[in-house]
Hints:
By secondary structure, the protein is mostly helical. The chain has three helices and no strands. Helix 1 (about 1-25) packs antiparallel against helix 2 (about 30-45).
Amino acid sequence: MLNKYFxxxxxxxxxxxxxxxxxxxxxxxxxxxxxGVNMIQSAFTKWCLxxxxxxxxxxxx
Length: 61
């Protein structure tokens, strides 16, 4: 279940970043850079802030 929530939230954040960068400011692309860097570091460290937040909210692994 955690994986499903994670994918939905990250997908929503990427779509939000694209929409905001198109309609508001190109600087919103930095939000996408943050998402990408976070996903890369979590692959190496096995730690992700979003996963920690979801677990504290009671989402089951």
